[in-house]
Write a structure and sequence with these properties.
The protein has 4 helices and 14 strands. The protein is of the alpha/beta class. It has a single domain, classed as Metallo-beta-lactamase, Chain A, CATH 3.60.15.10. The strands form 4 sheets. It has a 6-stranded mixed β-sheet, covered by helices on one side. A 4-stranded parallel β-sheet has the order 1-2-3-4, covered by helices on one side. It has a two-stranded antiparallel sheet with strand order 9-10. Helix 3 packs antiparallel against helix 4. The longest helix is centred in the C-terminal third of the chain and has 17 residues.
Length: about 180
């Protein structure tokens, strides 16, 4: 599974990934990472899983893109896509049951101190997400067992206690936006 692919795809990267076993599918957390998903899917003959709620943001249609609906999309080997919403209605995280981990993109943004997560409607413009949307994100991941959370940026991960950090962070965030 390739999660939230980068925009650069070159022969060296394709070769390295093929040596590691290739890519069966691609899942993207939200439209900010859609950029060259079609090129990645063609390079590996891989399906792309995007939530239907974000269809309008796909600028390049392709038969390999599979739009899924509902709140979850079970995959294989204990992986599940979970629609959380957030700064996009189809905002998705990937649960890895065997690893007890969430791949969160910036739906759940790991903070600089790596003890909390945050929730934003717009990170570049510092516009907060509503309390109701924060509650929706927390409720979406609550049924899943995870101790680790891998964020969107290098070394922005919670190596343990992630589920508790999500709960604590939501309460702290909602207190802050209430004033």
């Amino acid at each position: 599974m390739l999660w939230d692919c980068i925009t650069l795809i070159d022969d060296a990267t394709v070769s390295a990934l093929r040596e590691l076993g290739g890519i069966r599918a691609i899942a993207i957390s939200h439209p900010h990472y859609y950029s060259c998903v079609v090129e990645w899917s063609h390079a590996f003959d891989a399906a792309v899983y995007l939530h239907e709620a974000d269809r309008e943001w796909v600028m390049r249609r392709d038969p390999r893109i599979e739009f899924w609906t509902g709140e979850t999309r079970p995959l294989w080997d204990g992986m599940t896509l979970i629609r959380c919403g957030g700064h996009f209605e189809g905002g998705t995280v990937l649960h890895l049951a065997g690893a007890g981990a969430l791949l969160a993109g910036d739906i759940l943004q790991v903070t600089q101190d790596r003890d909390w997560v945050s929730f934003m409607y717009s990170y570049p413009n510092y516009i907060p997400l509503s309390a109701a949307k924060v509650d929706r994100i927390v409720a979406a991941v609550e049924p899943y067992k995870f101790d680790r959370l891998y964020g969107a940026w290098w070394d922005r991960n919670l190596r343990s206690g992630a589920k508790d950090a999500v709960r604590r962070s939501a309460e702290r965030y909602k207190r802050a936006i209430r004033g």
